[in-house]
Amino acid sequence: MTAMDNEQMLRLKVRLLTEGASLPEGEWSGRRGGAGPVGSRYFVLPNGRPCGVPIRRGESARRFGSAALTRTKKAGVWLYDGTVRLTEVPRPAFYDLATAEGVPYSKIALLHGNSTLATTVYQSCRYWQKGNQCRFCTIASSYLSGDTLLEKTPDQIAEVLRAAEEEGVATDMLLTTGTPDTPDMGAEKLIAVIRKVREISKIPIGVQLEPPQNSRFIDEISAAGANAIGLHIESADEEVRAEVCPGKYGYGSVELYRRSWLHAVGLFGRGNVSTFLLYGLGEDRVTMLNMVNDLASSGVMPVVTPCRPAPGSHLAATTPTYVDALDEAVEFYKRVGQILADHGLNPAQTSAGCHRCGGCSPIQEAYDWALHSS
Q1: Which domains does the chain have, with CATH numbers?
Q2: Phi, psi for 273 (deg, rounded to 5)
Q3: Helix and strand counts by DSSP (H, E) for the chain
Q4: What b/e sequence results for 281-306 when a residue is b if at least 16 CB atoms lie within 10 Å of its CB, and e otherwise?
Q5: Which listed residue, of 15, 212, 281, 340, carries a Cα 20 to 30 Å from 362's Cα?
Q6: Do the bridges between strand 77-80 and strand 84-88 make them parallel or antiparallel, or are there none, so unpaired?
């Protein structure tokens, strides 16, 4: 096919992330659980960037309008909807290694996108224990299925990172955590890992956690050697946030998030502080775009991401508002991209974080469109 322009690339990325794709029976469909988007396979788009394509089958594929992904005669190359060639991200060789104690490396950290080594340091969350977890979350599923560990040690994570860097597949690192029932919100566990990693590597590190009430924990994360931080409010619409994230909503006010974002920007710099804003949960879009603009003007990266109802979550049977509304979704992301361009926030130029990987959000393609459309 002929080369795609920026608008076509944006449309392709939005379509893949919202509609997903179906695979032939017997093909692996991606990781089964975790704190973020699950049930995806990573492919490289024609623009050279990764996309975590939601894999859907049966009723789910029909509900989301998922087009087929089929193998071509060329190894690793797939055809999406009979027209677009996508290249699968190869399975890293380090997945086949294990620690001296016999723990597979793949239970400690995974490759996200095509170059981000990611791990959930603490695979549990106090909100699950209290029954008020985020409705999209499946953080407990990976641990209960045996795919991962409840808690990874700094030594384990550093060992896997060393192997991934030696293989040449990791250029940045992402550390996230479920929220323990402690005032630091998991910061101490992240700090211990960062310090250990810094003994062996200069790789850019992004971390994600809820904002602690005491901002000194953010200071300590920066001092330990992290390069970026994500403090995820999840929705700009307070009604949606209260319904979808009852535990986080009850804990953290918008004021706490705003205070934490601004404090973090002073430490990590513009674009290296981020927050997730989920798209497709019935949120008011004017409210959302206003927050996107406020965040971007403050140097905070709004990672606007299509929500992905995951099996095992409370949203499993939910049909997002973007279904059967592709044109509307593309126009919405054009607005987001224009805001990012207006404020000079290019996800590709930041140090680390989910937006640096870019597999689950089309904001990079939206930014590229805006940059070249004016």
Answers
A1: 6-373 (3.20.20.70)
A2: -115, 130
A3: 14, 13
A4: bebeeeebbebbbebbeebbbbbbbb
A5: 212
A6: antiparallel
pLDDT in tens, 137-148: 988 776 676 778
Return all residues near 193 (Cβ < 8 A) that are at least 6 apart. 121, 152, 154, 157, 158, 175
CA angle 302, 206, 110 (to 5 degrees): 110
What residues pair up with 43 in beta bridges, in sequence order? 51, 88
**At residue 29, does pLDDT exceed 60?**
no
The β-bridge partners of 203 are none
In the predicted model, what is the mean pLDDT of the chain? 94
pLDDT tens digits along 279-326: 999 999 999 999 999 999 999 999 999 999 988 889 989 999 999 999
pLDDT (tens digit, 9 = 90+) per residue, 49-62?
999 999 999 999 99
Nearest residue to 180 (alpha-carbon basis) of 215, 150, 155, 156: 150
The SS3 of residue 170 is coil
Q: What is the CA radius of gyration of the chain?
A: 19
* Residue type (1 letter), 255: E
The residues with which 138 forms a beta bridge, in sequence order, are 34
As to burial, measured by CB atoms within 10 angstroms (0-12 exposed, 13-18 middle, 19+ buried), residue 276 is buried
Taking each helix axis as running N to C, give the angle between helix 154-167 and helix 187-198, from 0 to 180 degrees, rounded to the nearest 10.
50
